Amino acid sequence: MGQQLFSNQAKNQDKNLIKKQEQDSIKELLNQYNYEYIALQGIKQSSQVIIAFSQKLQCNVAIEIFKILNTQKNGINLQELNQQITSNQQFRNEKYAMCIIELIYDRKQGLLGIVTELFDSDLITILDLNVLNIDQIIAMTYQLIKGILLISENVIKSSYISSDSIVFSKSKNCFLIVDHEAKVNLITQPVKVESKETDSVQNSVFSIGLLVTETLIQRRLTSIEQMYLKHQNIFEVLPSLKNSKHFEFISKILYQMLQSARNKMFHLQALLQIIDEFDIDENSLKSMKLKNKNAKLIINTISDIIKATNYYDELELNLHSFKTEQATSIAQNLEKCQNVTTFDINLGWIYITIEGATDILKILQKCQKIISLGLNLRGNRLGAEGVKIIGEGLQMCQNLSSLNISLNSNNLDAEGAKQLGVSLEKCLNITYLNIDLSNNKLGVEGAQYIGFSLKKCQNIKYLNLNLKWNFIEVEGAQSIEMSLQNCQNITFLYLTFGLDKQRSNVLEQSLRKKIIHCVQLIIYC
């Protein structure tokens, strides 16, 4: 038993070592061509897809890495591959085609990388996370057929297309074909396309027809059903579709696509003309969920913000100094990060004054798409005027639903509390609010201002308010308590007043009776 356990541990260590060596080899290849490894996006049967930052293009790209066997190395036709890539590069400004940027290769390591524009998800993941409606299915079908048309018109070989060969680009709002199988074939057996309307195009249309059928019926086709669909029409193989409310789409589009492989008279343009008769709503695709979880980038250098472009959803920036030119750079780079909806910026204990608050305003002006904002400003010298300026920036973040702001130790008085409160009143969409105002000079009057503003924040469901070390006394705490009675949507409430345990307990019991829907309510000493 003990020997077997030791043996399994040794095997796992060997696997981890091999995996690390492979990743190190890939990073070495990327460095040779001025790419910086960012993340592993996915592992395929014969390749893996890497997200990397291009120093030349100053943006993120996708790189599909193939491991070349020793027996294949001498047979690779790099000239043929480069010709194919050159043909594909004309798709750079095409919406419905994936643009290949360049080929990278290390014969010694046996690695081949095909660099493409970045994409956000693949069809397999999308179908796992969504049930597409008919508008989305029609839009997807239209986009993929347009993609095949572009490929065939430019004499680039297409073939049988599987679900992992279809990806989605959020920036283009479009499904794209990334033909993995054709790429693998090019590595070992370069091929030439002799005509524009070949059997391979018909096979591509047929294979997409299978995928669209699976999307429509919300299950995988069995191998027998797929085999029958090569020889019979869709209604013979799936008779239940005769009664489908989407019969028109099935009979006019899917029927033609699945007949394409055996229809010698099939023409891609004719199929597109039929699809054009339908109401194609490509905007319907914007509501699809693309990822299982958000990707977060943590950086300490402003210039690295651009690495969040088109991939990361969450961005955390930690700075040890802050100047006007830095704020301008942050704002400019943040504007390019189309996917970022969560932004945390840590500017604690670097002595920011009113001038610095004006610089922060520049950043907040570019946070129009931000849903969740974390602003750590503790230990600075903002005062009431600085908080007022930052508050003006918060009001511009109209999509903001979650705010975590720390103004601990900022020399704030009652006027500072008033200015912050006025801004919070105008952030109408906030449901999650975490405010740390501890170690200031708010006093009873400042607590009253905070309470008065919270009274107007009717949408808040989560509130964590820290007013410790502010001389608010019992009177200030009671003012907060009375105001919160009007916030009946609060389900989680955490308050810190800096009172003794007995008085905190009395206030807590009083609030429990008045905020009846609160799941958790705690008042800390």
Automatic annotation (TrEMBL):
UniProt-annotated location(s): Cytoplasm, Cytoskeleton
Keyword Lyase among record annotations: no
Superkingdom per UniProt: Eukaryota
Keywords: Cytoplasm, Cytoskeleton, Kinase, Transferase
InterPro entries in UniProt: DRC5, Kinase-like_dom_sf, LRR_dom_sf
GO CC annotation, single: cytoskeleton
Single GO MF descriptor: kinase activity
Major localization class: cytoplasm
Name this polypeptide is given: Kinase domain protein
Gene source species: Tetrahymena thermophila (strain SB210)
